[in-house]
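The records we work with from here on pair a chain with its fold. Taken together, the tokens spell out the fold as the letters spell out the chain. The record below shows the convention in full.
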Amino acid sequence: MMSRFAPRYALLSVFALSTACDLEDADAEPSMALDEDDEFRACTPPAYSIDPRKSLFETTVAVLTPFSMGSVMSAIDVNAGYPSTPMVTYNNIINNFEAGVPSDPGSRCDDFSDALGIGTGLNGYPLECERDERLQDFNMASWFPLAAVNRIDLMPADGSHCGEQRLILASNAGARMFLIFEAQIPNPDPGCIEACRPIAEFWESLSSKPIPARRTELQQAFLGTHPTLSAAGFGPFMSADNLTFGSGQIRSNNFDQPPWTLREHKLVDNGGVLVSVEVAVEGNIYGELWNDSSPWPQTPDCGIEIVNQLDPLLA
């Protein structure tokens, strides 16, 4: 779950950028003339009125109506140049929870064994297979949108990309399942952090707009073409290109069967069809490595590394 405050400051920091990367005059002489208010102005970013429930984490039901599972899947297909086959793409994600045969496209949960040879695995660690989430196939109609989320705060300092734009959908057809589409947005001018400003300004503008306008603009930005963002070099956020290796991901938060599990999925091409490949969840270690008596050979080194990270975390 994102921090309530950090994204707001990240958003404001983008607004505070004062010069475009390609407008600096290398031959200009620096001015040393300051009036009495310059020092104060240099340390005080401009004031912006940000409503976090509109410009960071939009959950208003009437705003989110365009984001059915079918519309999201179709956009993911079409915006990456594939035919619109929303049910096929959706089922190929759900198939990650199902056992299969080697000829099946994408990945199945029994593709690999864990490193100890105990059972099915991923990245060498155990992976439960099969799970009840597999019963969600052909079940797009049960899904509903929960949030559109601005994660421009995930933009790296070098401006190599413009952070993430996310949609969260849920299904109560089983116990409870979430799919989080975490699209990493390419920077139209990689390395120039200023080029990401239009996304920040887009979200900032929503703070002062009514429900119909927010609904239309979010639909354009996430699924179709938003005129201002398109003019700045940004395509629609929901695209397989933004949810694959080297970019973003789809995460599933799974409660249909205990124990709860968080999983990560990447979309890849398979003969002109999008399929889903399950990968290890980035930034999360296997739970048993926290246990000093765990049989996994990585446990001692992992424990040492965790202890070594305490000082920086507590500083």
Residues 48-284 form one domain.
